[in-house]
């Protein structure tokens, strides 16, 4: 079962993500980041790699793509807020771009 | 070069799309449709197939995905409105789901 991040878990897991360009979404317990690639094929290649991890972990992003940018929002619907799954997927997405 | 749809082109190309569930986007010369699939893998499989056509035709959607739904907006940025490319990609996307 997923659980909402505790105050300490939140600090430990989210601070490195904020340092890496993630930010809280206004009005939601969710984090977001916009990735900018060189073109559509790079952007969609990232989405494809991230999609495989999302499906493997059964934890899916809310995301949008316009040409070479991909905007990602992560939250955990069954706990209505951020869980460790979001931090894990955020870290994986960052890894996939490096 | 892309060209804005003429009045007659607009009627001929857009009416069948409206009948197929596409609609004008409020405040923009753009069309949109939301596809609902059975799960994330079906939704992302559709996006992958559509992405290959988009890249082949050098005409890319603005789209978002939340779990099993995909919301697509089509417009032609270099003419700041709808062109025949949008109708062509819309028809292809509909074909991919049948």
From TrEMBL, chains A, B:
GO terms for molecular function: 4-alpha-hydroxytetrahydrobiopterin dehydratase activity. Pfam families: Pterin_4a. Keywords: Lyase. Coiled coil: none annotated. The keyword Lyase applies. One of its GO terms (biological process) is tetrahydrobiopterin biosynthetic process. Its EC number is 4.2.1.96. It catalyses: (4aS,6R)-4a-hydroxy-L-erythro-5,6,7,8-tetrahydrobiopterin = (6R)-L-erythro-6,7-dihydrobiopterin + H2O. Belongs to the pterin-4-alpha-carbinolamine dehydratase family. NCBIfam families: PRK00823.1-3 (NF002018). This is Putative pterin-4-alpha-carbinolamine dehydratase. It comes from Thalassovita taeanensis. The lineage of its organism: Bacteria, Pseudomonadati, Pseudomonadota, Alphaproteobacteria, Rhodobacterales.
């Amino acid at each position: 079962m997923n659980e909402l991040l505790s105050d300490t878990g939140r600090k430990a897991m989210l601070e490195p993500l904020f340092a890496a360009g993630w930010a809280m979404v206004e009005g939601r317990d969710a984090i977001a980041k916009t990735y900018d690639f060189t073109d559509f094929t790079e952007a969609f290649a990232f989405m494809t790699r991230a999609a495989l991890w999302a499906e493997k972990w059964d934890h899916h992003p809310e995301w949008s793509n316009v040409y070479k940018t991909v905007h990602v929002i992560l939250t955990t619907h069954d706990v209505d807020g951020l869980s460790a799954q979001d931090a894990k997927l955020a870290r994986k997405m960052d890894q996939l771009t490096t």
